[in-house]
Amino acid sequence: MLNSRSIVGIIASIWAVSLPAFADDEPRGEPVTLGYIENVAVGNLALEMKGKLDTGADTSSVHAFNVKVYKRGERDNWVRFRLVGKDGRAIRYDQNVIRFANIKTKRGGVIRRPVIHLPLCVGGRWGRAEINLADRGEFEYEILIGREFLANRVLIDSSRTFTAEQECERPNED
Predict the structure, then answer these.
(1) Which residue from 56, 63, 105, 108 is spatially nearest to 81, judged by alpha carbons?
(2) Does an H or E element contain 11, and which?
(3) What's the rounded Cα separation, in Å, for the pair 172 and 52?
(4) For the chain, N or C: smaller number of CB within 10 Å?
(5) What span, in angstroms and rounded, lies between the C-alpha atoms of 100 and 117?
(6) pLDDT (tens digit per residue) in 70-93
(7) Which residues contact 68 (CB under 8 A, 6 or more apart)?
């Protein structure tokens, strides 16, 4: 039997996992020029993180806490994790794993990371991104935004930081 606390937790997880209704994931209009460091809104709750825009990375990577991969059904891999924003606000997610990435380490080893889809916004430009869940605790930036998201949305002026003029407001959740 579910109690009210369990039901609220289930509803919060479903809400946090829901992707905003984008007409499509293709960028619209001209790309915006931003600095190599910008504030990034993550997920449909627009959790704000300080991010590095990195044209040297294929996909994006976010600092995730308490990452637990589990099976839902016989074949599907899911992952439960928490993201913490600049203001200390934490959001728990349950997401379908779209694939696993093997990431080379500086010491020559390989780390296997779950990859998910999450909506991102930087400089007022929303889109869905492929993001691997990482321990970025030793890095200065909580999120790294790769080319897969940046392409046709953002041009980067590597001599500047925090240049975004347009805010990332929470998307409509129709």
Answers:
(1) 63
(2) helix 4-17
(3) 26
(4) N
(5) 12
(6) 998 877 899 999 999 999 999 999
(7) 79, 80, 81
